[in-house]
Design goal:
single chain, 88 residues, 4 strands
Amino acid sequence: MNIIEVVATVENFFNDVIKKPGVVIGVLRDTDIYKVQIEVPEEVEYMRRRAKDDLLAIYEVVVDSDLEILSFERKHLRERTSINIGDV
């Protein structure tokens, strides 16, 4: 398994299962798992209620050595034009 396979697995998971296309922005190998950060746009209705600008979420995804997604969790939410990462 290489990092390209891990990135493809996470991007495919978000596209196919979560129905949110995203871009991987970071990968960290930790013993026999990978911790992957992916940035995805949030739902349009949610954006209208919460912010004036598009919202982007950063999720942390844990992938095992068999390319199985073990967990995913939203870590941060920000407006697209903001340079600060944090909760909106």
